[in-house]
Write a structure and sequence with these properties.
With 123 residues, the chain is an all-alpha fold. It has helices at residues 11-19, 27-40, 50-75, 83-99, 108-115.
Length: 123
């Protein structure tokens, strides 16, 4: 507020100032503006499919890639048993039979006894 004012404005004066319309133009200018406003201002168009159109091609590519990945994963099933698997299992059984005499080394007492043997000296 202005410090030179001897008294503050009343509520009625404030309401009158806030409720009044500020006039800075002439009535002729306002009339001319109303006539030209229709030509200068186009009606606002809201974008309807802009964002959908922007996501169409990347979304289509992603969908295609995902469907191909799913098709490849579903196509690859468990591998069928081949004849080589049976041969490998028979070789494993033969190896187990060959290592059967060394099973005594797996006992804890035998292993401790072997660890405490003196090391041989080589000359």
């Amino acid at each position: 507020m202005n410090s030179n004012s001897p008294r503050p404005p009343t509520d009625f004066e404030l309401d009158r100032l806030l409720g009044s319309r500020l006039k800075r133009t002439s009535p002729e200018f306002e009339q001319r503006w109303r006539e030209l406003r229709g030509d200068l201002i186009r009606p606002r168009r809201f974008p309807t499919l802009g964002w959908k159109r922007a996501w169409w091609w990347p979304g289509l590519g992603t969908l295609t890639l995902a469907s191909l990945t799913v098709a490849l994963v579903l196509r690859q099933g468990p591998a069928p048993l081949r004849p080589e698997t049976r041969v490998l299992f028979e070789e494993l059984l033969a190896l187990d039979a060959a290592l059967q005499p060394a099973q005594l080394l797996l006992e804890t007492e035998t292993r401790d006894a072997l660890l405490h043997l003196p090391a041989p000296t080589l000359r």
